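Title: Prediction job returns without error message
Component: structure pipeline
Severity: low
Priority: P3
Assignee: unassigned

Description:
Job completed but the reporter wants confirmation the result is attached to the right record. Sequence as submitted:
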Amino acid sequence: MELAAYIAVVGLACALAVRPNPLSAGTFTVVCFATYVALSVIIRLSGFDVDMAVYAASMHYIFDAPYYLREPVVWYGHRLLWSITGSEVISFVVMDVVLMSVMFFSFKRLRLPQYAYISVISFFPFIMGMQNVYRQFAGSIFFIAAISAIYDRKSYKGVAFSLLSMLSHNVAAVFIFLMPMFTKYRQVAFIAGIVLIPVAIFVGGDTKSGVETGARLEWAYVGILTVCCGAIFFLERAHRNLRSTIALLVTLALHTNIAAAAMLASAAAERVSLFTLLAIYPLLVRVVERRLREKFLLRCAITVFGFIPILVAGTRIFIFGE
């Protein structure tokens, strides 16, 4: 059932890729949220994997240990929703839809084409986040919201979403170094980030979660990131724009992930990479839209190739059932 749902999502995204905005705003909003809710319900009714079972169990308890207080958004958000609904499934669905709503309006601020709103939910870091590493997933969504707010010159909203990102998953603190990249001091921030990010990773490298996302995949994720960041960098270079905010940002993001893969345990490094992949997705979409004329095939390629890795290393055996 899940595989069929994801294939339908990929198909819908490719259908929307024919033009930047093939549907009217109202129709698209209805289609988008209907898709979000349907996918969430299908996933949550299919059972809970690994970390998700822990989140489901945690809804029944009140925690006051530092482990939970450092990342209260998801832990206490789930607890609050369960206290209202009395249902683990409904609590997850509500949280899913809230996060996807934040993503939807963030994409609107970034003026992304319609296919991206659907394509992103079939992107493998998004799938892995919803099925397993949920705090990181929430942190990534709020980080995208922070980027979109700062891009839209809403600095106070950017700060608020940055805090929500860090309070969802502490790994977001490393990426706060990227925020000054959206100011006139971006080149100074870039140099400072090159020096300070590895230091921050080394000092704060101890992680809470001991659950692996799979085999040792940290360098595989760095490889995927290299391809994505390399494509963005190449397109910016082709337009003699190597000092653009996006070019500098993705270079610093890749530097962060190489440092994490070299210094951290596999599980922690994988989480940093998955966080980054989801966070730079809207940047990749924007560069393709701005820099290339033939967009349809590339929009479809972003969608299809973004989904394929989950078939190889999914967090749930949803291909053939459990």
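Comment from assignee: result matches the submitted record. Residues 207-214 have pLDDT under 50 and may be disordered.
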